Amino acid sequence: MTNEKDIENIIKLLDEKTEAGVGRIKVNISENQTEGSVEEVHHHGRCDVGSPWATGKVRNFDC
């Protein structure tokens, strides 16, 4: 269950990222991830992180 401290921690994390110059942030919440843990994925392009374009798994791109 989410509490006020969890919300404050998320806001702090997002504030730190934007202050550091991060322009795009995608947040996913998972019940399968260890509580309190954070996983970051960095991508140095304009494709969405994890998309077929970003991962090189685009099908039929040569058609």
Q: What keyword list fits this structure?
A:
63 residues; mainly alpha
Describe this structure as you would to a colleague:
This protein is mainly alpha-helical and 63 residues long. The protein is built from two helices and no strands. The protein has helices at 4-19, 52-55.
Summarize the structure.
The protein has 63 residues and is mainly alpha-helical. 32% of the residues lie in helices and 0% in strands. The mean pLDDT is 81.
In terms of topology, how is this protein built?
Layout: H1 4-19, H2 52-55
The largest pleated sheet is described as: none
Radius of gyration using CA atoms only: 15 Å
The percent range for helix content is 25-40%
Give the overall pLDDT as a whole number: 81
What percentage of amino acids are in beta strands? Answer: under 5%
DSSP summary, beta strand count: 0
